[in-house]
């Protein structure tokens, strides 16, 4: 088939209303969170390194991403995900 | 002496409470004058009530959610099709839709896009219509009628001038497009397009007709229909039958911040796991709401969370959550009993008996409620 014409507009997932804010956090913060929940890194919820948002914020495997969701029940909810391959 | 607004805000904003509770406290305290002692009292009591309202550790949250979604589910219609929101577009609703959502089907039975438009387009009917034509997949059959001339071995397309003009196309353009796709020479004479197959055989002729019909002359493949609707806000929104989110988002005039699809896997591919979670919650709530059922969103959130913890959208059920349980007995109790027992027998799996199902099977108290507490005797020294 013929190649699709692309209008040259790039879609940024983070701009979408359904995508909450994602940010990579540093080692010190990770340790604080792990201590707070009494868990090890591997027990955290995961996000794929190939996830469109992970790509956008340039996360690497082993990073921890803080996600600040708009919650229907609490207005704001903070969530963490470990970046996996 | 009452405290000033700033000190109140500072004390409250760092409390270990959800944002909403803090916001409510703030608004309330804006209109009331309180002293330091009163504020401390309010805070202690709020914290106590919040703590009391939280779920107990070890509570069977999953079972409560399952029941809370399951019971209203029994009242849902078994009928698949309904016309919701947009009159002309068919959408799967009710129980079949809910099953589709928790099964995380790759292709839902009625994929649909809700396309919001950018400011310049959203309030202009003509511009919205123009975009709709740009998105809707157009093939030759809507632009004119096709006939074959067996004597001269040619295919004739009589274009409907109005339909062609409406879609902002010309006969020449169509001819060029067909030529590009099929590499056949297209003769344009007035409103007619004339094509001849490579070899003058009847079979080739019929094949050519088929090929021409399958070409998408304009629009996006996979979007069968586009319906324009004016919302209460006065803004025009496009609804489509069929869903190709990625390509639609790239079109000028489409608002890439609000446009959405009802295909959760597509959302996951385009916008990631967090959007997929949000979409799961939205779709499930909407399906239940449309049936007149109200389920607390927390239950649905729990389901969405468990489906998305591992970074992929996993279905509930044998191939997803239930099939990944650590316990052999729990898996065997769910579905395909023999193969689970056989496989784990072969590999010598160990069941730790930590879950509910396996403890019921072996006749032990489950580790919930009273069963969750263990007594440890301290030996007298």
Task: Throw out a few tags for this protein.
heterodimer, A: 85 residues, alpha+beta, Eukaryotic RPB6 RNA polymerase subunit, 4 strands, B: 381 residues, four-stranded antiparallel beta sheet, 18 helices, 10 strands, flat
Describe this structure in a few short sentences:
With 85 residues, chain A is α+β, with helices and mostly antiparallel strands. Chain A has 2 helices and 4 strands.
How would you describe the overall organization of this protein?
The complex is a heterodimer of chains A (85) and B (381). Chain A is α+β, with helices and mostly antiparallel strands and 85 residues long. Chain A has a single domain, classed as Alpha-Beta Complex (Eukaryotic RPB6 RNA polymerase subunit), CATH 3.90.940. Chain A has helices spanning 27-37, 52-56; strands at 21-25, 46-48, 64-71, 75-84. A four-stranded mixed sheet of chain A has the order 1-3-4-2. Residues 1-6 of chain A have low confidence and may be disordered. Chain B is an alpha+beta fold and 381 residues long. Among the domains of chain B are: 8-53, no CATH class; 138-214, 2-Layer Sandwich (Gyrase A, domain 2); 317-349, no CATH class. Chain B contains 18 helices and ten strands. In chain B, the strands form three sheets. Chain B has a four-stranded antiparallel sheet. In chain B, strand 8 (225-230) and strand 9 form a beta hairpin. In chain B, helix 1 runs antiparallel to helix 2, helix 4 crosses helix 15 (297-308) and helix 16 (328-334) runs antiparallel to helix 17 (337-347). The model of chain B has no long low-confidence stretch (mean pLDDT 86). Classes of the chains: A alpha+beta (85), B alpha+beta (381).
């Amino acid at each position: 088939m013929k190649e699709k014409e692309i209008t040259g507009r790039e879609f940024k997932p983070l701009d979408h209303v359904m995508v909450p804010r994602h940010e990579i956090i540093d080692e010190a913060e990770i340790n604080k969170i792990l201590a707070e929940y009494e868990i090890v890194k591997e027990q955290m919820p995961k996000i794929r390194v190939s996830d469109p948002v992970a790509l956008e914020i340039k996360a690497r495997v082993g990073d921890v991403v803080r996600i600040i969701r708009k919650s229907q029940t609490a207005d704001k909810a903070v969530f963490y995900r470990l970046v996996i391959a | 002496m009452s405290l000033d607004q700033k000190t109140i805000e500072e004390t409250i904003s760092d409390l270990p409470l959800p944002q909403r509770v803090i916001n409510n406290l703030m608004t309330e305290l804006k209109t009331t004058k309180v002293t330091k002692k009163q504020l401390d009292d309010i805070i202690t009591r709020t914290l106590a009530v919040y703590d009391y309202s939280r779920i107990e550790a070890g509570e069977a949250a999953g079972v409560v959610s399952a029941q809370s979604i399951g019971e209203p589910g029994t009242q849902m219609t078994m009928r698949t099709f309904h016309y919701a929101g947009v009159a002309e577009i068919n959408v799967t609703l009710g129980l079949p839709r809910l099953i589709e959502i928790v099964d995380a089907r790759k292709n839902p039975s009625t994929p649909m896009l809700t396309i919001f438009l950018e400011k310049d387009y959203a309030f202009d009917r003509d511009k919205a219509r123009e975009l709709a034509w740009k998105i809707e997949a157009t093939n030759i059959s809507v632009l004119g009628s096709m006939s074959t001339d067996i004597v001269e071995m040619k295919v004739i397309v009589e274009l409907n001038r109005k339909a062609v003009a409406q879609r902002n196309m010309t006969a020449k353009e169509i001819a060029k497009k067909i030529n590009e796709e099929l590499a056949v020479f297209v003769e344009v004479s007035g409103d007619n397009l004339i094509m001849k197959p490579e070899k003058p055989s009847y079979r080739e002729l019929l094949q050519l007709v088929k090929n021409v019909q399958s070409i998408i002359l304009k629009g996006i493949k996979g979007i069968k229909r586009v319906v324009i609707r004016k919302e209460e806000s006065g803004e025009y929104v496009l609804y489509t039958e069929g869903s190709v989110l990625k390509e639609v988002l790239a079109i000028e005039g489409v608002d890439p911040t609000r446009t959405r699809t009802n295909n959760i896997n597509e959302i996951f591919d385009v916008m990631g796991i967090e959007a997929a979670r949000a979409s799961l919650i939205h779709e499930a709530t909407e399906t239940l709401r449309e049936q007149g059922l109200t389920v607390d969103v927390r239950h649905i959130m729990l389901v969405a969370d468990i489906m998305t913890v591992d970074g992929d959208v996993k279905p509930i059920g044998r191939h997803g959550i239930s099939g990944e349980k650590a316990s052999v007995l729990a898996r065997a109790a769910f579905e395909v009993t023999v193969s689970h027992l056989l496989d784990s027998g072969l590999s010598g799996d160990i069941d730790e008996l930590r879950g509910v199902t396996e403890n019921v099977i072996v006749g032990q108290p489950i580790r919930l409620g009273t069963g969750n507490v263990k007594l440890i005797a301290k030996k007298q020294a």
